[in-house]
Amino acid sequence: MNIIQSPSPNFSERDGFKPEIIVTHCTEGVYPGDLNWLTSVQSQVSSHYLVAPDGKIHQLVDEKKAAWHAGLIVNPTFQGLKPGINPNKYSIGIEVSLLPPAIMTEPQKKSYYELVKDISTRWNIPIDRQHDIGHKEIRSNKTCPGTINMDTVVKDLLSVSPGPVDREAIKKQIAELLAKL
To answer: Is the pTM value of this prediction over 0.85?
Structure first.
């Protein structure tokens, strides 16, 4: 996977939190204008990644930092929010630059899925609907991620890969089995 570094100045520290969820967005502009917006100091917004229609992946913010993509909470349906904690602190944001009329291209879909699997593995984030969400699940007055159906995304990802291995759960199961011997 080839990732292009396109730094954004719009980020903050995670304050000890680690990524636990992946939030998918769709841009409101057109590539490359949306890349320019997400890397502009005037925008005051960012994400960790932007997936372009041609499948190119731009990393805008280091995953160890909090990108400014999902901090405003409005009537959330996502049950995993941490009360009083900005979700940017424990999430990774991916923007998908959809082509009009809100279409994800095949190269883009392939890159997006590969990126989600890679992030999930690296941070041990399960691939499921409790950890892979759309922006509108945090901020209900948004339509973002547009035509990207998160149920379908998770189903597709699981049909290819079972997701990251929960090493702690495996260690616990082994210890329990050994204790029974």
So the answer is: yes
